[in-house]
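Teaching assistant's notes for section 4

Start the section by putting this record on the projector. Ask students to predict, before seeing the second block, whether Cadherin domain-containing protein will look compact or extended. Collect guesses on the board.
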Amino acid sequence: MSGDKISLQPNTEQFELKTNLQPDGSQEVRLILRGALDRESVSQYRLQAIAVDGGDPEEYGILEIIIIVADANDNHPVFDQDTYEVTIEENVPIDPIPTETLVIIHVDDVNDNAPEIMIHTLGDSGDNEAVILENTVSGTFVARIVVNDRDSDDNGRYNCSLYEDHFVLDPFGSDFLITTRGILDREKRSKFSLIIKCHDYGKQALTRTTFLQVSIEDINDNCPHFFILI
Ligand SMILES: [Ca+2]
Ligand SMILES: [Ca+2]
Ligand SMILES: [Ca+2]
Ligand SMILES: [Ca+2]
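Reveal the predicted structure now:
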């Protein structure tokens, strides 16, 4: 290749040819790598080293150069799905997720809320106090119990109970109603303190207890008695 002009085709940023004239007049040709290769961008280069002599007519020779870029483990793990779904329990701190992909996190419910109990009574007596007249029929409305449990599924399902012989608690839709059982006589007993207990159905069930004061209002149902002292 003495006296030849050698060029590389096509021109690339990555490669160039360097020629060194040897003592015997020949040229040593080296292919020099100028820039970093990225196999993920270009995995193969097809180049031609074209040598042209100085003759007339010019003669030329072509050397095909195929460069195959070997893989280096220079990438983070590649996700083979667009989205990943993982399940964690709520209330657990989430570690940073160390790569760029869409992660959908389903939060498993933990039973961390006890049922909340709200009592609605008639009149102005206040929510934890009901007033009913004595002698009203059995089944008279005393209070409506509204329960809310912020958890989901069984952790958020609930039931309530009431232990008091003179009153009964029944489901009413998702609420509960407290009504009288039998006829109440103020002259026998004028106040009741009802204990309402609600629990959820979580594996570790949570309960909440609240109280309702029921006052029995007097009506004039007793005639005066005469005591004759002899
Ligand atoms: Ca919860
Ligand atoms: Ca709950
Ligand atoms: Ca009475
Ligand atoms: Ca009375």
